[in-house]
Amino acid sequence: MCYFCQRNTKEIDWKNERFLLRFLAASGKIKPRRKTGACALHQRSLKKAVKKAREMAILPFIR
């Protein structure tokens, strides 16, 4: 079951750094769906949130 569907999450907050770090590997890459447990819809919105946080310098591009 999807992590976000269980919690009835409509939108992923790109400003929450600690939350987004849970979905990043040690190298800084976004973890795949099979590791995060997210459905396709929420994995795409997670990708957008991480990319926006990187653009705003909240998350690093490379660790």
Structure in a nutshell:
It is globular and about 30 Å long. The chain is built from four helices and no strands.
CATH superfamily: Ribosomal protein S18
Q: Over the alpha carbons, how many angstroms does the gyration radius reach?
A: 11 Å
Percent range for β-strand residues: under 5%
Number of strands: 0
**How many discrete structural domains?**
1
**CATH topology value:** 30s Ribosomal Protein S18
Second CATH tier, the architecture: Irregular
User: Could you name the CATH class?
Assistant: Few Secondary Structures
The termini sit apart by 30 Å
Average pLDDT level: 93
Question: Order of helices and strands, N to C?
Answer: HHHH
Which structural class do the helices and strands define?
A: mainly alpha
Helical residues, percent = 40-55%
Q: Name the overall outline.
A: globular
Number of helices, counting only DSSP H or I runs of 4 residues or more: 4
Please describe what this structure looks like.
The structure is a single chain. The protein has 63 residues and is mainly alpha-helical. It has one domain (3-55): Ribosomal protein S18 (30s Ribosomal Protein S18, Irregular). It has helices at residues 3-6, 17-21, 33-36, 40-55. The longest helix is centred in the last third of the chain and has 16 residues, at 40-55. It is globular, with a radius of gyration of 11 Å. The mean pLDDT is 93.
